[in-house]
Amino acid sequence: MLRPSYNDLMNVVNSEVEEGEQPVINSRYSIVLATSKRARQIIAGDEPLVDTQSNKALSIAVEELEEGKIKIVGDEEESE
Fold first, then answer.
1. I need a labelling partner for 18 at 20 to 30 A (CA). Which of 10, 12, 53, 80 fits?
2. How far apart are CA 20 and CA 32, in angstroms?
3. Where along the chain do its domains lie?
4. What is the pLDDT at residue 75?
5. What is the pLDDT of residues 6-57, one digit of tens each?
6. Confidence of residue 1 (pLDDT cuts 50, 70, 90)
7. Which of 75, 41, 35, 26 is nearest to 59 (CA)?
8. May I ask the CATH class of domain 6-12+25-79?
9. Would you give the DSSP letter of residue 80?
10. Closest by alpha carbon to 32, among 55, 69, 2, 54?
11. Using 50, 70 and 90 to split pLDDT, how confident is the model at 77?
């Protein structure tokens, strides 16, 4: 079982969304894409943004997302 769960991660990412606004992410797929992209950055040499015991890039990326150190932006925000 994945810890934290996908639901926990979605709650963290959507925590800053005002009531009535559309959530930043709606699916597990968005979390998978975001964490895999960040893991590739870590593999390429970026420093982790969290103190961790893990040496696996994907685990580090998930921890960063859980702690709110990285954000998932929508397509509209990314193009700006």
1. 80
2. 25
3. 6-12+25-79
4. 58
5. 888 888 888 877 777 777 777 888 888 989 999 999 999 999 999 988 899 9
6. very low
7. 35
8. alpha beta
9. -
10. 2
11. low
The type of residue at 55 is N
d(CA 46, CA 80): 23
Could you tell me the sign of the dihedral formed by the alpha carbons of 73, 31, 37, 59, in that order?
A: positive
Encode 45-67: b = buried (16+ Cβ within 10 Å), e = exposed. eeebbeeeeeeebbbbbbbbbbe
Tokens of 10: 């979605």
pTM for the whole structure: 0.77
